[in-house]
Amino acid sequence: MTVLPKWADAILIPLLSILISFVISGLVILYLGLNPFEALRLMVTGALGSSYGWGYTLYYTTNFIFTGLCAAIAFHARLFNIGGEGQATLGGLGAALVCLAIPWPHWTLALPAALIGGALFGAAWAFIPAWLQARRGSHIVITTIMFNYIAAALMVYLLVEFLKPEGSMDPATRRFGPGAELPLFSDIFGLVGIPFSSSAPANISFFIALLACLLFWLLVWRTRLGYEIRAYGHSETAAGYAGISPARMIIVAMIVSGALAGCMAINSVMATERLVLNSVEGAGFIGLAVALMGRSHPVGVILAALLFGFLYQGGGELALWANIPRELIILIQGLVILFTGALDNMVRMPLERIFLMIRRPGRQGA
Amino acid sequence: MSDSSGTAGRPDTVVPAIELRGISKSFGHVQANKDISMRVMPGTIHGIIGENGAGKSTLMSILYGFYKADTGEILVGGEETEIPDSQAAIAAGIGMVFQHFKLVENFTVLENVILGAEDGTRLKPSLARARSLLTELAREYELNVDPDERIEDLSVGHQQRVEILKALYRHADILILDEPTGVLTPSEADHLFRILKGLRDEGKTIILITHKLREIMDVTDTVSVMRRGEMTATVKTSNTNPQELAELMVGRKVLLRVDKKSAEPGRKVLEIEDLRVVDDDGVERLKGIDLELRQGEILGIAGVAGNGQSELLQVLGGCRRATGRIRLNGEGIDPADHALDGQVWRERGVSHVPEDRQREGLILDFFAWENVAFGYHHAPEYQKSRWLMDNAAIRRESGKKMERFDVRPPIPELAARNFSGGNQQKIVLAREIERDPDVLLVGQPTRGVDIGAIEFIHQRIVELRDRGKAILLLSVELDEILSLADRIAVMFDGRIMGERMPDQTSEHELGLLMAGITDTASAA
């Protein structure tokens, strides 16, 4: 029985959840002896007040769209892929290897190649836990968590032992070279005469991410494969009746999921022009919150990714300009995740009751 | 409305245990209850009968505080009572036994009985109180269950008794039972009725929701009939008969027998030899099945549930692997082949209406049109290109199929969950029969389906047979097998006990076969 209209479920509940988390954050800031409205103003101007701020906000947003889609496709198959972090890490490795392999003549060639490299590595890293679940029954939540740690350790090993340039103290690869440089927003908007900060990292990957959202929508709601993935996600028994192989669905959904996480590398690795340790910076985990909040729909994922992009950038600014400890930013982000992801019902239940009351005509006649 | 005239002839001085006045409730554009008024007298068993989707369960959910009525009022013991949630219902002395039990499987009977009604933080006093009450009730009403047994170890009939005990422990004076016999064997059902009569004689009021006429006639004092959200009549049970009630439910005369001409079996379509299945626990479920199915006939498989019929259907539907030999249209098929899934069978012209429409046959959260393509989503006419499905075409076709199968409402954009059980079944049947298969496998086609829809479904199955198709019908309703099948095979313990022609056998003989007794039956 669905009580709430669609718009309330998709928009009102997330908005209320965000509001509650902001109010609680505000109370904490107040307790620290600061003005919460001033803090909010700092965040908004820092994240959205300049093209520089936007450039960072959208840079983070791009990461979160990819990892959000990664979690969302797995959700459709009722799989909880916590391994986005590790898959994005490996995607970074794939993209970096492609960029380092040859001196690319132009970014238009390097970008698709790096995209494929990142997607392949990400998919391969997701394939192993998927295969283990499909054939051996090892639970994907456990294996993907372990694979995050393995990915991180692998990265340290490879960077320190093989990939860092001779004599460097920094566990990072050499720069990829001018042929692998992606056009920044300042370059793109410059073409049509709009000035944009050239020191902000937002780049063409953002549009690739939007394209990925469109392809995601087509895959899930317009293709046979998407139909089968959703059917499997809703009911494994029914899928078996219809001749949809559960093992195949687990593996295919996870490969797509890992590939999407791996695609993030074009933004987090290629745009920064070298591979560093921890290039993912927790985006893989944020992706879970983004997908939950975005109801596993690409439009929702874009909006939720924007919110988290704003929180990342605005939070960074807040730590920089106000006397607020960095940890508080993590607290605010944590509260948003808590309320939008985990405590969905806390908002939903009272809201349903209100809607029932509105819909019921008055009982004055009684 | 005949509610006031039909209150079992009691004097007006008796205050009704429950009185509903002008209850209406709608969900979106579906009006589930329309201006319903009803009086339930204390110390009676009051039946509410109606087709699936007639609004019986909605009405009871309002009474139990799950839904809030749009308009109308509820009087308990003559006093107007607000019932915003089930806590309030319990406080008002109303107890409910659901069709699907709400028990904690790994708790004992005693723990389940006190769950949510503990006296304090310490469990011991509550447990002791419950134990003495249970002993007392067991003596009084044949409500005997071992208080220390775990729920998962109990039979379904016993689990239901625990639900009744839970309600009585909470001091329920009014007990609502929603389709209580749907999960029970006939003898368990008889036992339940004895319990209910005992409770009534002690002064409890019982509301029994069902769509089975026999139960109404057997146990109720008064019966209210619902049709399409309205209460069409309330009559004293002794003043009516099944035929009249059936007409009131459906709104027209119903054929309780299937109208069909005799079968003209053609060539063999499906041949099964020595089919064996061992399940995951290592138990042999099918122990060498031999069957053949011809064009233009309905082969009915009779048997008590759990004797291998489900496994047989699953093998033929591609949901389970087996050993043995199968020939379909003369072509050999290896039932052990893992590539042999539902898709393969469907491509070869075998359609499958599964026994459990909600868990297997439908994705409840999918739209009706998505369900109409379910299992056939690879069909060429549903594809727009190599990758994309032609959703518009599926939607159009679904609309037509749903109308031809009288699915109500015929709206493809509604989620399958929002249809009543009978209409969900029609969606599945529309999908499978409209593919015009060579072989149709049907499991429990009318389980939990109302009379009007049963008639419709039976006609469609007979029509398909008359077009020269082969039908394998599986049903636990012996009546259904007897009236529909052209040939009957009885299964017991994973084997076929024998085959009979419906006009040359009796319920008695089939019953013996179903119990695994062959020699004495033929010797007698």
Distinctive features:
heterodimer, A: 366 residues, mainly alpha, ABC transporter involved in vitamin B12 uptake, BtuC, 0% strand, disordered C terminus, B: 524 residues, alpha/beta, Rossmann fold, 6-stranded mixed sheet, 24% strand, disordered N terminus
Question: How does this model look, in words?
Answer:
The complex is a heterodimer of chains A (366) and B (524). Chain A has 366 residues and is mainly alpha-helical. Chain A has a single domain, classed as ABC transporter involved in vitamin B12 uptake, BtuC. Chain A contains 16 helices and no strands. In chain A, helix 1 runs antiparallel to helix 15 (326-342) and helix 2 (36-48) crosses helix 3. Chain B has a domain at 297-523: P-loop containing nucleotide triphosphate hydrolases (Rossmann fold). Chain B has 18 helices and 20 strands. Mean pLDDT of chain B is 86; it is low at 1-10 and 520-524. The A-B interface holds A 1, 218, 222-225, 227-228, 230-231, 234-235, 237-238, 240-243, 245, 356, 359-361, 363, 365-366 and B 27, 68, 70-71, 73, 80, 317-319, 341-346, 352, 354, 356, 359-366, 370, 373-375, 377-378, 383, 387-389, 391.
Number of domains of chain A: 1
CATH architecture of chain A: Orthogonal Bundle
Query: Helix share of residues of chain A?
Result: over 70%
Binned, the helix content of chain B reads 25-40%
Examine the secondary-structure arrangement and name the CATH architecture of the domain at 297-523 in chain B.
3-Layer(aba) Sandwich
Largest interface: A-B, 26 and 37 residues
Measured between the Cα atoms of the first and last residue of chain A, the distance is 27 Å
CATH fold call of the domain at 297-523 in chain B: Rossmann fold
Total number of strands of chain B: 20
Largest sheet of chain B: 6 strands, mixed
User: What is the CATH class designation of the domain at 297-523 in chain B?
Assistant: Alpha Beta
